[in-house]
Amino acid sequence: MSIPNSAATPERILLRLDWNVIRRLDGLLQGDYRTLFYGFGVDFADLREYQPEDDIRYIDWNVTARMDTPYVRQYHEDRELTAWFLLDMSPSVDFGTLQTQIEKRTMLIDFVTVISRLLTRHGNRVGAMMFGSRLQHTVPARGGRLQVLRLVNDMLKQPRLPNAPFTNLKSFLSGALNSLKRRSLVFVISDFISESGWEASLSLLNQRHEVLAIRLYDPREVDLPDIGMVMMEDAETGEQLFVDTHDKKFRKRFADAARKREMDLNLAFKRAGVDVLSLSTEDDLVRAIVRFAKRRQKVRR
Description:
The N and C termini lie far apart (42 Å). It contains 8 helices and 10 strands. The chain is globular. It folds into 2 domains: 10-40 and 77-222 and 262-300, Rossmann fold (3-Layer(aba) Sandwich); 43-76, no CATH class. It is 40% helix and 22% strand. It has a 6-stranded mixed sheet with strand order 5-4-3-6-7-10, with helices on both faces. By secondary structure, it is an alpha/beta fold. Helix 6 links the parallel strand 6 (185-190) and strand 7. It has helices spanning 10-29, 61-67, 104-120, 145-157, 169-179, 198-208, 248-272, 285-300, and strands at 43-49, 71-76, 82-88, 125-131, 135-142, 185-190, 210-217, 229-233, 240-244, 275-280.
């Protein structure tokens, strides 16, 4: 369902989020955003023996083979980092429900605005690549409040695409891998409703960058309510079908399919070594980000 938001402007969105989200985050996280963004360096510093909590991406396999025990590379940490938002703007992100009055696209815009604001306040640079049926728009990485406003403005201007064949995340992620030369913090923000085969590209991207997956979803995509005869439409292809939601067997098949997709997605993220934040259209953005930050902090310890 498409829920218009014609009154939104970059300044209004940023002002609303500054007051309602970022101020609350400042209090709850006490400014310690390193629990959310680890930071990393590009300058080699030293080698040491592997410890169980170390990131396996930093294992030096040549030294490991010579010493017959795992060794990891250590790096001098950069004070500044560059973050990229890889944004899925395909038709399926325009789904929302009357109950929430919020689309997945709305959550995407709010999340990017908040995170880019947090990053640029500390002197970091942010950029974005926006993808529909293909790469449609790139915002070069820069710093400052004006860059945040530009990102919001460009996201708002991205057209709502007509129904098309399934999104091809594989080509998008592969293109990003080829484009991003300098090691960066990368947010892949999508509902991951796509043709299969993107998992390997996500894994390759994560080997070169610090990648966080932000999975967007609406509760009605996983829990079909009993509301009688309804027209269901595939947001990607436009295919329509009348279904009877009174039918318990149909609702069970729907729930089973949603559960299987959930398990497949979690397995794909785990295999790629990517941390994931599942963000619902019913979520409180502050609580979701704090929950994510605390989980990352716990894992890091």
